[in-house]
Structure prediction request, 662 residues.
Amino acid sequence: MTSSSSRRKRLGEFEIIAKFFAPLASESGAFGLKDDVATLAHRSGQELVLKTDAIVEGVHFLSDDPADLVARKALRVNLSDLAAKGAEPVGYLLSLSINAKTGTPWIKRFAQGLAHDQKTFGLSLLGGDTTATPGPTTVSVTAIGWSPLGALPRRSGAKPGDLVFVSGRIGDAGAGLALLQEKSRAKGKSYTTLVSRYRLPEPRLALGRALRGIAHATIDVSDGLLADLGHIAETSKVRIAIKADAIPLSAAFVDKLGKKRRAIVHAATAGDDYEIAFTAPPSARDALKRAAAQTGTPVTEIGRVEGGKGVVLLDASGKRIPVKRAGYTHF
Amino acid sequence: MTSSSSRRKRLGEFEIIAKFFAPLASESGAFGLKDDVATLAHRSGQELVLKTDAIVEGVHFLSDDPADLVARKALRVNLSDLAAKGAEPVGYLLSLSINAKTGTPWIKRFAQGLAHDQKTFGLSLLGGDTTATPGPTTVSVTAIGWSPLGALPRRSGAKPGDLVFVSGRIGDAGAGLALLQEKSRAKGKSYTTLVSRYRLPEPRLALGRALRGIAHATIDVSDGLLADLGHIAETSKVRIAIKADAIPLSAAFVDKLGKKRRAIVHAATAGDDYEIAFTAPPSARDALKRAAAQTGTPVTEIGRVEGGKGVVLLDASGKRIPVKRAGYTHF
Prediction:
């Protein structure tokens, strides 16, 4: 190994782990982060659900984003995948490559963010790796949950005749990022709402569990609504038609970007929403209404599944709206 | 999300996943990387064993290290932890942040390295995340294995009166790194051996399983022999005394660095060995000989566990050898 940084006066690797991360390892199988590995006991009748996702400074979060929100976002983008599959999260492993110039206060605040969301979602840190990097800080999380054996809804389950639904509001996070990037001076309430939706997604865990046995196909919306529905269309071998006017927009979004066609296309392709998009048969409408009410999660019908392939965005007269790029890719 | 790189002519994120990584997802629960998550069915009478570790370009591997060896090293540093705990690896999740200037051939060769070691160790890729980064390439792996329920040897199990053992040879990888860093021109056979020991650790999986029920405390040697034995001493609340002359050195190591005190201290503190250090009672000597022979793994007795605390390195007359730094830390 080559040492990239060792002469600064600050806490060392083991001190950082002992002081900030060991207290987060509440599960007994994490051994207080004092062993090489963690263990996890089985839950009868359940299967393990796994997801890994990384966020990179300057790519998925901004250098001046607050450290506690960076930590919580890193957790939540993974929890959102578990949510879309109706899984119950129990813990996570953290691989943290911290830029060598980062001071201890940043790490402390980062750990406070983890502690906050561990409480919110009932999680334990199960294992971790902390290293210094000469490059941007990179936070890689592997989230672990449980799902009743065989109950996991797949991307491939959509059937012609299904309706298409989405939770929450679409486009807020993309609008928040745009505002941060243009360093908008006109802040106000809508600004705060949109920026916080970018910085702190809300994984729809309760709704995801309520969709078990109702939804035919589910996905979490991270790359962009149309791009992610495209994954369902591809793996299910169907065509998905979305009504542009039906896409749920927040008041804050409309306040900042309006609701003309261009704004709607931005919302449907910007990504970072971390909502659940799913298909279900028309007979499930009542069950879905109850699931939405019981979990306090808005659910909106936005389109339908047909024979064919691909995803199309339609205007009020059923005419196709051209979309240049369905969503975000990391390359 | 902000796009850090999108104008180069090369494969996109989804093409890279489909072409290079999806074929590695052999386990059915990985869904061919075509869903948000992976699932893993339970093995009766076993518990899950988890480990995450990242390697960073310029910190844990060198920019001109061959991509297939980088991939295999990223896997093996995690498998080594599973090995030290007697666990049987089944799969892994991969979070890959690739420097934006990296071309497709590098990624292709990286995936070939993964494929090679998946075959060697019987693994499946269970999930992944691929993203471009403006910084150094960072490879984060979460390895998953199984261990018979309750059989996992801990760092905390060492008892006064135990003997201390280590597998393989110590110091080769540290010497290999030193040779690479000084850009040595006198290469030859010893050079090749040491460099390859740095680039490609050998996780001692068979030995680790054979140590179940024999070893009192185990750890994988990654930060440095003395540093890692220090973790056993600390969590077991014992003192560990190591005989410098007993530390097993390879012919290649002695050829390049000699076997004087300074070379031995280098070997015992350099890290990256990925051998198993462990303690066991004197009554286990015969069982250990059999385990070593059956698994084709050298095992050497190097010291003993006493009451007290800390780790000491002793010369032939029992006098303490001063050691400035017991091992490597990442900060």
Remarks:
- Residues 67-84 of chain A form the longest helix (18 residues).
- Confidence is low (pLDDT under 50) at residues 1-9 of chain A.
